[in-house]
Design a protein that fits this description.
The structure holds two protein chains of two kinds.
Chain A (H helix, E strand, L loop, with lengths): L15 H6 L3 H30 L9 H36 L7 H19 L28 H30 L12 H33 L8 H13 L1 H5 L2 H14 L7 H15 L15 H10 L1 H15 L8 H23 L2 H7 L3 H31 L5 H27 L16 H31 L37 H19 L3 H4 L2
Helix pairs in contact in A: 2-3, 2-4, 2-17, 3-4, 3-5, 3-6, 4-5, 5-6, 6-7, 6-9, 6-10, 9-13, 9-15, 10-12, 13-15, 13-16, 15-16, 16-17
Chain B lengths: L3 H33 L15 H30 L11 H5 L4 E8 L2 E6 L4 E4 L7 E5 L1 E9 L4 E5 L4 E5 L5 E7 L3 E9 L11 E7 L1 H15 L7
Parallel strand pairs in B: 1-5, 4-10
Antiparallel strand pairs in B: 1-2, 2-3, 5-8, 6-7, 6-9, 9-10
The chains are: A mainly alpha, B alpha+beta.
């Protein structure tokens, strides 16, 4: 264990071989996370291109064809190459530490996953190097738009291969993480003592393993259809493709939500210096969420006239029950706590507030009479950006500020952290609130241009300004990380008074994570120890025992 | 046939206040707790960390809210579908009340619209320089929407309604037009369909019944069409 003043210990060597060939789950998780974050920055730049183009009617900086490539690659990158790989990367890094395991199950398979993911991303982006550019059939690649007649370009094929590779990688990681959760828990840690974040990973992995094969199937069929024909040619073909896609495409939204929900909840509990409230209800609600989220995909298809709208409206509306539990538990955890307002808590609370906008508008668009108007407009764009920026990005940032000390041994700057938070809050509100109004007024999504007579320029300009504020916020995070890696306060094992096992080992943890493990009697083993110490101290004081011994 | 715009407003009038109320309540609680329970005391708080009974009651309450919203949605959908062939409620109700509604067949193509009026033998289509115009009478109009290539979506924001256009399939529905007038770009393609998706709009012209009849006869004469087929 490190002492407070010693420089952080490096785990493993920093050679290129170590970075890219190590089977340490922490290395695989970190390298995957950093790669995913690089894709996030890339996709963010694409978003800035789009927002700049949309600030005024008429085409200013992009051509229609380029715009279509840009929004396709923005969405594809954010889902296939950023949010999903990141969700599994945080699991690869943290799950063994939270459940007291020395390793993940099948580490070499997990490393293979990284290489598949990286090649998938590079292959998808290599479309930009072809004569006709990258894929341009949107991240959904609806048939027949994506078939060999409407989109014959090679960029589409490269996109399909990239999606399959990245998705197979995700499935491999999910298998590794789930097997670790089932087989490698520390003595005493029953399934109902797994910390909340790791429970989020249990349900994430379940969703990946059950829903993602549908995407691999859809992509394989699409590839066969493009090159040999005959797959989606039936009149029901386009609808069948949409079913296959959304059977993956809705659960994926929860895959990029649960791990970051878990991160936000851990930050809330630790910063409230209080045991997470309603653990059992939360586990049930996560399982309920997971089951329901497998049966709501048709709400993406209300306007097709090809699904049982009532069924999917009912299941979609029912999602408010598990979501309500999640909010109840978060608020109850803060209630009568001893709250310390750190950046991690601010991001976690921002997560709650912004995701709520996405969740509530989700209930609205889950009602077909409302959906018939709002579907495929900017209202939907705003809605799901509140779930993925409010949910994934804010939860992830809460996690960065919470676990950065564990990963690097140094604490991220709080001053810059709060600026980082404020910019992202303002940016996220300014970018996406105007889009609700644009959608209500009938602005369709995926358009590079709109007529001047619609009068949408003002709201679009607000949204564009907001996007640049988000960009500044992310820039501040990068500066903060670069600064804190050199100058940050040394963290020690447990700078926050953490509740879970990862805070009992050194920062960063050694190759096999733990030298010794405390007894595990609940989902907050370190908090148990601290409470016992407090009780012993209070008891000793009450009994008038020797106070000298207790003085630090 | 139901007024889609009115149905939209009715459902929104219930959903929006609930959504905004919940949002305000939660944000106020978050901020209040973060301010009220701030503390420099580093000792952990011991206290109650579970309340299964309370949470079960709360979940039951949430389920009731979900059920109420679903009930509103379902009853509105029943009204929307009434009288639409292939809809799930009693078909033919509308036909018994007034004259049969006008039928328009909408064909979407990359990147243009064609509107066919089988009763009059009229076809309206856009050109390279001019948006197509959908001309309809006030009152109920039935649509059958299809596509010749990829998936499009027939979207009239003023009607608060859209329906996807699939190749080799017809989607049927009814809309009610209230206000006569001309709406530039009043219709759009809402489903991304490739290169010129952004420009796949159409103008909407709503005429009162007599004016529509005059327009239809003039169009038919201009096209040299035969007598009404309906």
């Amino acid at each position: 264990m490190t002492t407070l003043d010693a420089p952080p210990r490096r785990s493993g060597t920093l050679s290129l071989l170590g970075l890219f060939g190590s089977t340490d789950h922490k290395h695989i998780g970190l390298v995957t996370g950093l790669t995913a974050f690089a894709f996030f920055l890339l996709a963010g730049l694409l978003a800035l291109l789009m927002r700049t183009e949309l600030a005024e009617p008429g085409l200013q900086i992009l051509r229609d064809d380029t715009y279509n490539q840009v929004f396709t690659m923005h969405g594809s990158t954010m889902f296939y190459l950023f949010a999903v790989p990141l969700a599994l990367a945080v699991g690869l890094y943290l799950v063994p530490l939270q459940i007291g395991a020395a390793e993940i199950v099948w580490p070499r398979l997990a490393l293979l996953g990284y290489w598949l993911f990286l090649s998938g991303g590079l292959i998808m982006y290599s479309g930009f190097l072809t004569a006709d550019g990258a894929a341009k059939a949107a991240w959904t690649a609806y048939d027949p738009l994506s078939d060999s007649v409407a989109t014959p370009e090679a960029g589409m094929d490269l996109w399909i291969i990239g999606v399959v590779l990245a998705t197979v990688a995700t499935m491999i990681w999910a298998a590794c993480v789930l097997a670790t959760l089932v087989r490698r828990r520390a003595p005493g840690m029953t399934m109902l003592r797994i910390p909340v974040f790791s429970w989020g990973m249990v349900v994430t992995c379940l969703l990946v393993l059950t829903a993602f094969p549908a995407l691999v199937l859809a992509m394989t069929l699409l590839y066969i259809d493009r090159h040999f024909g005959g797959v989606f040619t039936d009149p029901g073909g386009p609808l069948a493709y949409q079913h296959l896609f959304w059977f993956y495409g809705h659960p994926v939204v929860y895959v990029v939500f649960f791990p970051f929900l878990g991160a936000a909840l851990e930050a809330i509990a630790v910063c409230s210096r209080k045991r997470f409230f309603g653990y059992h209800a939360m586990v049930l609600s996560l399982l309920g969420f997971t089951a329901l989220s497998m049966s709501v995909w048709g709400h993406h298809m209300f306007t097709t006239g090809g699904v049982a709208n009532r069924y999917f409206a009912l299941t979609s509306t029912a999602l408010l029950v598990p979501a309500g539990i999640e909010y109840f538990d978060s608020l109850a955890t803060m209630f009568r706590g001893r709250i310390v307002v750190r950046t991690s808590l601010l991001f976690a609370l921002g997560f709650l507030g912004l995701f709520l906008i996405g969740g509530l508008t989700g209930i609205l668009v889950g009602s077909p009479p409302l959906n018939y108007h709002l579907h495929d407009t900017y209202f939907i764009v705003a809605h799901f950006h509140y779930t993925v920026v409010g949910g994934t990005v804010f939860g992830f940032f809460a996690g960065i500020y919470h676990w950065f000390p564990k990963v690097t041994g140094r604490i991220l700057g709080e001053g810059l952290g709060k600026i980082n938070w404020a910019l992202l809050m303002v940016g996220t509100l300014l970018t996406f609130i105007p889009q609700f109004f644009l959608g209500e007024e009938g602005m369709a999504r995926r358009i590079s241009d709109y007529p001047a007579y619609e009068g949408w320029a003002g709201l679009n300009q607000l949204s564009t300004v907001g996007a640049f504020v988000i960009f500044l916020g992310v820039l501040v995070l990068l500066i903060n990380v670069a600064r804190s890696l050199r100058l940050g306060r040394v963290a020690g094992d447990d700078p926050w008074g953490g509740h879970t096992l990862e805070w009992t080992t050194s920062s960063p943890p050694p190759r096999h994570n733990f030298e010794a493990l405390p007894p595990v009697r609940s989902y907050a083993p370190l908090l148990d120890l601290r409470e016992e110490r407090e009780r012993a101290r209070a008891g000793a004081v009450a009994l008038g025992a020797d106070r000298e011994e207790l003085r630090p | 046939m139901a007024d889609t715009r009115e149905q939209y407003e009715n459902v929104a009038a219930v959903y929006w206040p609930i959504a905004i109320g919940v949002f305000v309540l939660v944000v106020v609680l978050i901020v209040a707790f973060a301010l009220r329970y701030r503390s420099d005391d580093h000792r952990p708080v011991e206290g109650r960390s579970r309340a299964e009974g309370l949470e079960s009651l709360y979940a039951l309450g949430l389920a009731c809210v979900a059920a109420a919203l679903a009930y509103l949605t379902f009853s509105t959908m029943a009204e929307l579908e009434a009288g639409v062939p292939g809809g799930q409620s009693a078909a033919g109700e509308v036909a018994a009340v007034g004259p049969p509604a006008l039928e328009v067949t909408v064909t979407a193509a990359r990147w243009n619209w064609r509107f066919d009026y089988p009763r009059y033998g009229i076809t309206q289509v856009g050109s390279g320089t001019r948006l197509p115009t959908l001309t309809v009478p006030t009152g109920d109009v039935r649509f059958a929407v299809t596509s010749v290539d990829v998936v499009h979506s027939f979207f009239i924001p003023e009607e608060r309604y859209k329906r996807d256009a699939f190749p080799e399939r017809f989607n049927r529905f009814g809309l009610r037009f209230e206000r006569p007038g001309f709406r530039r770009g009043g219709g759009k393609c809402a489903e991304y369909c490739g290169l010129r998706h952004s420009y796949m709009n159409f103008d909407l012209r709503v005429l009162d019944r007599a004016a529509f009849e005059r327009w239809a006869q003039a169009q038919r004469a201009a096209a040299g069409g035969a007598g009404p087929r309906a």
